[in-house]
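Here's my example:
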Amino acid sequence: MPERLPIYINPERAAASGLDASGEFVLEKMERLRDRLLPPYGSVEARLSFGKEGRRKYLSGHIVGKMVVECQRCMSALEKPVDHQFRLGLIETEVEIDMLLPGEEPLMISNEDLFLADVIEDELELLLPMVAMHEAGSCEQREMSAIVDEIPEDEPVVEDKRPNPFAALVDLKKD
């Protein structure tokens, strides 16, 4: 049974002890991610495993849940399911990047504790679509007639009566 996920962790000690922990993350509390999501934002469950293979340290994780993004077609909420596995090589210098296994991404660590919500937030940001849209035909698109129906009948329609800037060209063309 995995332990409850701590807020801060020393990655060196976690890798040495083979820590296996899980916890829930409420996306509304993640400042960078919140700006790109819509209420109710969503939440994810993360299971993290720290380990060591020889001198190499790693963090592998699995994130499951949902994020609520804005559909760029209808501008309404769109639930984006999350089921993401990742593996990060814990490195202290850029020279160690060459020692990473295929599929591992580098995570620079120092002597300071690691704020795990930042790691999860970084992974979730990578999963956000460039353009989020509902499946074709399933959008809550509003018809143009519905928009026209919202204009009160007693409100006068103002037409733009500015002179056409190209009207002078008509006289030149006649010559």
Notes: The helical segments are 11-17, 31-34, 116-127, 144-149, 167-174.
